[in-house]
Amino acid sequence: MQKHRFGPLSTEVSLIGQGTWLLDGGDHAAAASVLRQGIDMGMSHIDTAEMYGEAELVVAQAIEGRRDEVFLVSKVLPSNASRSGTIKACERSLARLGTDRLDCFLLHWRGQHPLEETIAAFDELQQAGKIVSWGVSNFDEDDLEEALAIAGSGAIACNQVLYHLEERAIEHAVIPWCARNDVAVVAYSPFGHDRFPGPKSPGGRVLEEIARDHGASARQVALAFLTGEAPVFAIPKASSVPHAADNAAAGDLKLSADELRRIDEAFPRGPRPRSLPMI
Fold first, then answer.
1. C-alpha–C-alpha distance, residues 162 and 154, integer Å
2. Which residue from 191, 278, 258, 183 is spatially nearest to 226, judged by alpha carbons?
3. Cα distances (Å, whole numbers) of residue 100 to 63, 68, 84, 90, 113
């Protein structure tokens, strides 16, 4: 599994991590087992959020006794992101996760609370040792500029955004901005939502052809394409051990310039939208 430095941090984080949205809907013990085995496969970056129901409790089971092996991320809801609300949200997440610290704590998306309040809370949490770093999610270029003006250079660890082959809006401005400012980009929903191109679609055929050449899967090829440009990481979700293994294997897959070109042509990015797409 490839690892890269996570934004301004000295910490190196697995290129492919593990998402947990909607992970709490079934057997918690089974879901935790998949996460644990994902850690064994090198996917040590685990992402969760207070919005994700009981997902933090599932993660707590998965990382019990292994906290130091993982890069643990959670998020505060915008409605809770006042200065005091952010601190309380973090403390609730820490309790549910059974840990004394988060490696990164994110604002889930922009809300009505001023960014100054949320960032002041992040600073306070860092000083207290409850978070190692902080970041944002679903921020477009102008949002990032505002956060940078408040916090200063080197403070924003990452921006977590929607990114998959059929939704490449962040390539227009967000990825270049993050690259210039040493901010990690974390791609959520990298397979889309029940929209991954099938093998009979034109784009799907391209993925399948490239996959066959590498002895890989089409999903591995998609992940390799999305994370092929620094500073992009991805956090796909897996509901089974074989699915987790398939995701993890993408962390070592290298595509040629010609293969990248073919995928780019099969899934054109399209024009820059007026606002950044979210789920």
1. 23
2. 191
3. 13, 11, 18, 10, 26
- Written as six digits, the tokens of 272 are 């820059």
Domain limits at 179? 3-196+230-254
Q: What is the pTM of this model?
A: 0.95
| 216 part of a folded domain | no
Let me know: does 152 contact 125? Beta carbons within 8 Å: no
Please check whether residue 47 is in contact with residue 20, taking contact to mean a CB–CB distance below 8 angstroms: yes
CA distance 269 to 262: 13
Residue 217 included in any domain: no
Q: How many domains does the chain have?
A: 1
CATH of the domain at 10: 3.20.20.100
Phi/psi for 127 (5° steps) reads -65, -30
In a domain, 259, yes or no: no
Per-residue pLDDT of the chain (279 residues; tens, 9 = 90+): 899 999 999 999 999 999 999 887 788 999 999 999 999 999 999 999 999 989 999 999 999 999 999 999 999 999 999 999 999 999 999 999 999 999 999 999 999 999 999 999 999 999 999 999 999 999 999 999 999 999 999 999 999 999 999 999 999 999 999 999 999 999 999 999 778 999 889 999 999 999 999 999 999 999 999 999 889 999 999 989 999 999 999 999 999 999 999 999 999 999 999 889 887
Report the C-alpha gap between 63 and 99 in whole angstroms: 9
In whole angstroms, what is the distance from residue 274 CA to residue 271 CA?
9
Residue 273 resides in a domain: no
